[in-house]
Amino acid sequence: MDKSKYAISVAARTAFLPDQSDVDAGRYVFTYTITITNTGSVAARLVSRHWIITDSDNQVQEVRGAGVVGEQPYLRPSESFEYSSGTAIATPVGTMRGSYQMVAEDGTEFDAPIPEFTLSMPRVLH
Predict the structure, then answer these.
(1) Which of 18, 72, 79, 108 has a CB 3.0–4.6 Å from the CB of 104, allowing a cystine?
(2) pTM score, whole prediction
(3) What does the alpha-carbon distance between residue 34 and residue 10 come to, in Å, rounded to a whole number?
């Protein structure tokens, strides 16, 4: 498979949501905004996702599902799609990583890796 034809870049921004969190009960809620960009030369559709969410006690949640936020975006070369979602973990710090399962317009299926990013309550990490 020609990796330059089938290439997706993924960038993430995160924020802690204190109004939805309950620190005393061990519930830390975060929002994340993902930007997915087709850096390849073939259009592709995001058909499903696989997330691995790990808190600082090494408790792992795996999430699989169709599309993202109810959509299966179709990205032509150089096009981007941005969405926001959220997650809750039991510790003030954690990580998320995973992959998007893609189908190119020529029928080729490939995974777009989601690089690991950190979820952190403010003033916890230095």
Answers:
(1) 108
(2) 0.92
(3) 7
